[in-house]
Amino acid sequence: MWTLPSDYLQLTKPTIMLLVLFTGATALVAEGSFLAQPGKFALVLLALYLTGGCANALNQYFERDIDAKMKRTANRRPLPMDRISAQNAFWFAIAIGVIGVAVFAIWFNLLSALLAVGTILFYSLFYTLWLKPNTVQNIVIGGIAGAMAPVGAWAAATGGTAVLPWLMFLIVFLWTPPHFWALALFCKDDYVRAQLPMMPVVKGDIATLRQIVVYSVIVALVSLGLKWFGSGWPYFVVALVLGAVMVLRSVQALRRQSEASARRLFGFSIIYLFALFTAIMVDSLLV
């Protein structure tokens, strides 16, 4: 009886949305206005999930033929498995997107609603239909959409933006290439079959690993910059250690050039981002 709801949930990419919600929640904690209003705090996260889930569902709708060619997705996503019709998936995506944008517009403000609409259109149309199949920089540019949650959440709480949420945006944006390129390294055959110009397919493993090192260094340095915008020394120490490990893992992956090292880097990149944003959240509550 739970199969159909689970299939629709999978259209929203719940694993990815966990990251989106966590970074958005971190921005809300750092801003502080809704800490005494848990209902509004939860409502922002609900709207983030609905709008982000809409973008992900539209992405799967447009990529259903591509997903059917890739081992990583063919037997995991509901559209290539024919568990949901394409038409139903499309209207489900539109429905949750409209509801999510309405929540932002009615309960919060127009800016947060417009940011949500922009994120949906950018990811589901510009990234999915043009960037991903046409440029090796697809993940780099497309990372804008996945990084917008802190900015959108902050806008919902304040009606504006500030330096801190944009720094959070920048961290997620810079983290995205090493995270997804590590995945692409051990799923390269899938991207070859789907004829998608991912970095390892077009430029090769070594060039990809070098880019991963560069981005890992940059994101580690940017994360330290929060110290000069209100974060305390405990956060700085945590960010320094996490950044050092991230860079070390990326250098090890470059030296070893093995699937195992790419998988370890991919796994640690997830730990890195969650741990770093946890540190931001805790620091905001303590400072």
Give an overview in words.
The protein has helices at residues 3-11, 14-31, 38-62, 64-69, 71-74, 86-108, 110-134, 138-146, 149-158, 163-186, 188-194, 199-203, 205-224, 233-256, 259-286. It is mainly α. The chain folds into 2 domains: 1-158, UbiA prenyltransferase (Tetracycline Repressor, domain 2); 162-287, UbiA prenyltransferase (Four Helix Bundle (Hemerythrin (Met), subunit A)), CATH 1.20.120. The longest helix has 28 residues, at 259-286.
Number of helices: 15
- What would you give as the CATH superfamily of the largest domain? UbiA prenyltransferase
Q: Domains counted in the coordinates: how many?
A: 2
In which range does the helix fraction lie? over 70%
Total beta strand runs: 0
User: How much strand?
Assistant: under 5%
CATH topology of the largest domain: Tetracycline Repressor, domain 2
Structural class: mainly alpha
Model regions low in confidence, pLDDT < 50 over at least 5 residues: none
CATH class category name of the largest domain: Mainly Alpha
What's the architecture of the largest domain, going by CATH? Orthogonal Bundle
Q: What Rg, in angstroms, do the CA atoms define? A: 19 Å
Order of helices and strands: HHHHHHHHHHHHHHH
How far apart are the first and last residues' alpha carbons, in Å? 48 Å
Overall 3D shape: flat
Major beta sheet, specifics?
Answer: none
